[in-house]
Amino acid sequence: MDKKTIVARNSSVILLNFCIKLSIDLGLNPILMIELGYIRSVIITTLIYLFIGIISIKIYDTHKVDYFWLESLKRAQAKYARSQIKNGSFFYRFILRRGWFNRLAISSVFSLKNPGLTVIYLRKGSYRYNGFSGKNIKLHFAIYLLFANVFWNEIVLLLAPIFKIIGLFIGKLFEIIKWYFIIRII
To answer: Sign of torsion, CA 86 87 89 91?
Structure first.
């Protein structure tokens, strides 16, 4: 398979994952919070992301394809672990370092996208495709799953009054436009 095909396939998987995440976070989550309340929305979205994370890991391990380039990242980190990286931006050097803080920061970002990616990133070794192996992987999965959902629900909870004000403003604006056209027709 040529490199263009690999990049196109992996980019499609990443885009699909991103679209699913956005549709849940921006579509379903605010509706659940308004209709069912904060606690129930956290529980429901946690269950949804639990299902998505497990399915992501199963598909990733079944196909044995580095869809998210996480195995390549782990291999690059292992390769440059002992050497001093002097070229590249701060962000590039930060990603390639293997310290505990770097792993915590990178896995936190992955968990906000898909908690399954955190499991794939934190597994020992690269290109092993070994599911939920290891002592702490299930614990990491649960912690990052709750972290991502509580984090996003707090954002929605804090921004809900702003969205309500914007919604009221847009509703009044449409009301004014409607009456303007009714008056023009009469």
So the answer is: negative
Q: Are 117 and 70 in contact (CB under 8 A)?
A: yes
Kindly state whether residue 77 falls inside one of the protein's structural domains.
yes
Is residue 2 helix, strand or coil?
coil
Query: For residues 25 and 44, is the Cβ–Cβ distance under 8 A?
Result: no
Confidence of residue 42 (pLDDT cuts 50, 70, 90): confident
Q: Render pLDDT for 81-97 as a digit per residue (tens, 0 to 9).
A: 656 666 666 666 676 66
176, part of any domain: no
Give the single-character DSSP code of 27: I
Token pair 């915590």 is at which residue?
104
State which residues form the domain around 63.
3-159
Radius of gyration of the chain (CA): 22
